[in-house]
Amino acid sequence: MHEGHQGITKTKAFLRSKIWFPGLNDSVDNAIKDCAACQSVTHTKKIELLRMSELPEKPWANLSADFCCPSPSGDLLFVITDEYSHCPVVEVIKSNSASTVIPVLDKVISTFGIPKVIKTDNSPLFNSHTFRQYTENTGFEHCHVTPLWRMPMPRPNHSTNQ
Q1: Where does residue 8 rank: exposed (0-12), middle (13-18), buried (19+ CB within 10 A)?
Q2: In angstroms, rounded to a whole number, what is the distance separating the alpha carbons of residues 86 and 59?
Q3: Closest CA to 81 of 71, 72, 91
Q4: How far apart are CA 67 and CA 76, in angstroms?
Q5: What span, in angstroms and rounded, lies between the C-alpha atoms of 156 and 5?
Q6: Looking at 23-139, which runs of residues are DSSP E strands?
Q7: Is 147 within 8 Å of 119 (Cβ atoms)?
Q8: Which helix (H) or strand (E) holds 143?
Q9: Hey, what CATH class is 62-144 in?
Q10: What is the rounded CA–CA span in Å between residue 82 and residue 58?
Q11: In a structure prediction context, what are the per-residue pLDDT tens digits for the chain, which is 162 residues long?
Q12: Which of 104, 82, 83 is nearest to 92 (CA)?
């Protein structure tokens, strides 16, 4: 019934038009999985397992930073998130230039200490010579990550206590 190597669905349909028996689906599935000719031309989609990021050893060692879309007034939200606690620091800024962002990072670093790593996307600011010099002078590693996969979202607080 599988002589033409037409696949599982067509083989089952052809068999059902001629005969039926208990376990037909499993028999066809197993026969086609064992068919060397079919397996040699079938592209199997390998699904890569999600890999969890390692939890940083302590708070404020690994940070993620990015900008949120502009507000109606044109201001930007610069969000720095601790990957250990998911605690965000949000600063309202006027532009995403190095002269605006670096003082904000200085303020956060002076409050929480120099991180080991700061992850950002590949925006022009984070690829600039000025930002690269800042990272070298401050002493943290700067990592670029894939856009939209860079920052853990803060966990919502559903507490009813005000």
Answers
A1: middle
A2: 9
A3: 91
A4: 7
A5: 53
A6: 62-68, 76-82, 88-93, 117-120
A7: no
A8: strand 141-144
A9: alpha beta
A10: 10
A11: 767 778 888 888 888 888 888 988 898 888 888 888 877 777 777 777 777 778 899 999 999 999 987 778 889 999 999 999 999 999 999 988 999 999 999 999 999 999 999 999 888 889 999 999 999 999 999 998 876 554 444 444 444 444
A12: 104
Residues in the chain: 162
HSE at residue 18, side-chain half, CA atoms within 13 A, is 8
- For tokens 């037409």, name the residue: 6
| Structural tokens at position 94 | 């006027």
Distance, CA of 110 to CA of 116 (rounded, Å): 14
Domain ranges of the chain: 8-41, 62-144
Q: Torsion-angle region of residue 144: left (phi > 0), alpha (psi -120 to 50) or beta? A: beta
